[in-house]
Amino acid sequence: HRNKSAAFPDERERTLIAIKPDGVQRRLVGQIMQRFEQRGFKLVGLKMLQVSEDLLSQHYCELRTKPFYPSLLDYMSSGPVVVMVWEGHKVVQTSRTMVGHTNPAEAQAGTVRGDFSFHVSRNVVHASDSPEGAQREIQLWFQSKELLKWECCDQTITCEDA
Ligand code: UDP
């Protein structure tokens, strides 16, 4: 009998990914979601919303003293955002790699920011930067009933060793 959770204790790790207003305006939602799907991660929450200033100030509370903070809040509230929760082994770290450097000018080609953006103030996507940060952000953006438990039929292929 193989113990799946012993082999992959963090298989249920979760991260929050948000497609920012520029990504939505530029019709990049499908292409960005596709990258997470094809990597093998599981989508467990998804919604589109116009973000309130209250939510944004909580989300970016650590940046409130930065000079770019007011323009960041303007940008993030300039239009709807698509926010998602993705689940899988080391999904936080892997998503940060997939999203690329905060400043798109330094982001590698092949990353979301490296392929779709060139300026730090319009960098298309957000990804949680640690498992603790992800937990905090998921609780902030989603109610627990909005996160779905479901079995991916290919889970034994994408998540287990042979
Ligand atoms: N940001 C900005 N100017 C900067 C640095 C950051 O406008 O000089 C914005 C940018 O949208 C970035 C967000 O603030 O994604 C949050 O910054 P953080 O350092 O947390 O980077 P991230 O975790 O998003 O890569």
UniProtKB/TrEMBL annotation:
<keyword id="KW-0546">Nucleotide metabolism</keyword>
<dbReference type="GO" id="GO:0005634">
    <property type="term" value="C:nucleus"/>
</dbReference>
<feature type="binding site">
    <location>
        <position position="123"/>
    </location>
    <ligand>
        <name>ATP</name>
    </ligand>
</feature>
<keyword id="KW-0067">ATP-binding</keyword>
<keyword id="KW-0539">Nucleus</keyword>
<dbReference type="GO" id="GO:0030027">
    <property type="term" value="C:lamellipodium"/>
</dbReference>
<dbReference type="GO" id="GO:0046872">
    <property type="term" value="F:metal ion binding"/>
</dbReference>
<dbReference type="GO" id="GO:0001726">
    <property type="term" value="C:ruffle"/>
</dbReference>
<keyword id="KW-0966">Cell projection</keyword>
<dbReference type="GO" id="GO:0006241">
    <property type="term" value="P:CTP biosynthetic process"/>
</dbReference>
<dbReference type="GO" id="GO:0006228">
    <property type="term" value="P:UTP biosynthetic process"/>
</dbReference>
<feature type="binding site">
    <location>
        <position position="68"/>
    </location>
    <ligand>
        <name>ATP</name>
    </ligand>
</feature>
<protein>
    <recommendedName>
        <fullName>Nucleoside diphosphate kinase</fullName>
        <ecNumber>2.7.4.6</ecNumber>
    </recommendedName>
</protein>
<keyword id="KW-0418">Kinase</keyword>
<dbReference type="GO" id="GO:0006183">
    <property type="term" value="P:GTP biosynthetic process"/>
</dbReference>
<feature type="active site" description="Pros-phosphohistidine intermediate">
    <location>
        <position position="126"/>
    </location>
</feature>
<feature type="domain" description="Nucleoside diphosphate kinase-like">
    <location>
        <begin position="12"/>
        <end position="149"/>
    </location>
</feature>
<dbReference type="GO" id="GO:0005758">
    <property type="term" value="C:mitochondrial intermembrane space"/>
</dbReference>
<comment type="function">
    <text>Major role in the synthesis of nucleoside triphosphates other than ATP.</text>
</comment>
<keyword id="KW-0479">Metal-binding</keyword>
<dbReference type="GO" id="GO:0004550">
    <property type="term" value="F:nucleoside diphosphate kinase activity"/>
</dbReference>
<dbReference type="GO" id="GO:0005759">
    <property type="term" value="C:mitochondrial matrix"/>
</dbReference>
<feature type="binding site">
    <location>
        <position position="102"/>
    </location>
    <ligand>
        <name>ATP</name>
    </ligand>
</feature>
<feature type="binding site">
    <location>
        <position position="20"/>
    </location>
    <ligand>
        <name>ATP</name>
    </ligand>
</feature>
<dbReference type="GO" id="GO:0005524">
    <property type="term" value="F:ATP binding"/>
</dbReference>
<feature type="binding site">
    <location>
        <position position="113"/>
    </location>
    <ligand>
        <name>ATP</name>
    </ligand>
</feature>
<keyword id="KW-0547">Nucleotide-binding</keyword>
<feature type="binding site">
    <location>
        <position position="96"/>
    </location>
    <ligand>
        <name>ATP</name>
    </ligand>
</feature>
<keyword id="KW-0131">Cell cycle</keyword>
<comment type="similarity">
    <text>Belongs to the NDK family.</text>
</comment>
<keyword id="KW-0460">Magnesium</keyword>
<keyword id="KW-0963">Cytoplasm</keyword>
<keyword id="KW-0808">Transferase</keyword>
